[in-house]
Design brief:
Elements lengths: L7 H9 L24 H11 L1 H20 L7 E11 L8 H14 L23 E12 L28 E6 L7 E3 L11 E4 L17 H10 L63 H9 L13
Parallel strand pairs: 1-2, 1-3, 3-5
Antiparallel strand pairs: 4-5
Length: 318
């Protein structure tokens, strides 16, 4: 298990030295179902860091606050209820997802973040001691719909900008905004980490993978794209730290070689130091929806820190 004791300087270096990557979403959306999970949150973060030099400083401050909260145990078991605004951008009837499908995503979030998912007890004995009930709930606040002629939106936040045909976020400091649209480029979704601009804050999910979208869209038809991306919005990194044997800044998750896809056989051993069994069933890996079903206690504490007084999302309140 990793022990994460990062100084503010080390955290700043982490954010400033990300690998150079380009936007992975193409101009045209593919009509084919996606076979492997693709999340663009890290690539979007890297682009935002380049565009806004102050973002690295803000994120460094958030990381320092988070690490201090973890070290001083200034976390409480209060309840956070998050109002959710869903912005639907559609060109086709299928993209104009129903209220029932939208509610199904809210239901999945409530189950996954409160250990009420039916597969929660599938967590192997090795990780049973660290599996977490995060204790954060979600309530649908509003659905906003807009017809568009765009075939795909990419990952440059165009769907969040009225001038580019999108929908601006509603009260982003006190409400979680979700966008449902055709992203393109093999991307299921992406999120903005805490510290980014409020004008682009929230989570984007391709309409084909929003909520319980039906067997036609398996293996991403159980709403876990939303769970994964909301995890990012709450300051969780990919479990492999977006680097070979990297760190996700969480102390009780094993070090992963890299992302895992599909439904890995258990146990799946890492070749990183100590050859730990990888936590492939964690929501922050890249496995199929039916293969991810837990957060860890360390991830829970990391998420809780952003809602504390002084935290990046304190307006939602603990």
């Amino acid at each position: 298990m990793k022990k994460v004791l990062l100084s503010a300087f080390a955290a700043l270096v982490l954010f400033a030295c990300q690998n150079d990557q380009t936007d992975s979403a193409s101009a045209d959306a593919s009509v084919n179902a996606i076979a492997r999970r693709g999340c663009a949150s890290q690539e979007v973060l890297e682009a935002q860091l380049k565009a806004d030099p102050m973002l690295a400083i803000r994120m460094n401050q958030i990381e320092a606050f988070t690490q201090n909260a973890l070290l001083t145990h200034k976390l409480v078991n209060g309840k956070v209820q998050i109002p959710v605004v869903v912005n639907v951008l559609y060109r086709t009837t299928a993209q104009n997802i129903s209220n029932a499908q939208i509610q199904s995503q809210i239901d999945v979030l409530n189950k996954d973040f409160n250990a009420l998912n039916s597969d929660y007890n599938s967590v192997p004995a090795l990780f049973a001691g660290v599996k977490a009930n995060v204790g954060i709930s979600f309530v649908l606040d509003q659905v906003i719909r807009k017809s568009t002629t765009k075939t795909s939106w990419g990952t440059n936040d165009a769907m969040k900008k009225v001038a580019q045909g999108g929908l601006a976020p509603t009260s982003p400091t006190t409400k979680l905004n979700l966008w449902s649209c055709a992203i393109g480029g093999g991307i299921l979704g992406y999120a903005q980490f805490p510290g980014g601009a409020s004008a682009t804050d929230g989570v984007v999910i391709d309409s084909r993978y929003f909520g319980l979208s039906g067997a036609a869209n398996a293996p991403f038809n159980l709403g876990r794209t939303g769970t994964h991306e909301v995890g990012h919005w709450m300051n969780l990194r990919h479990i492999w730290g977006d680097a070979t044997c990297g760190s996700d800044l969480v102390s009780d998750t094993p070090t992963h070689n890299e992302e895992n896809y599909g439904v890995p056989a258990y146990p799946h051993y890492s070749t990183c130091s100590g050859t730990p069994v990888e936590m492939t069933m964690n929501y922050m890996d890249y496995t199929d929806d039916n293969a991810m079903y837990m957060f860890s206690n360390g991830q829970k504490s990391r998420m809780a820190a952003i809602f504390l007084s002084g935290g990046a999302r304190a307006a939602f309140g603990i």
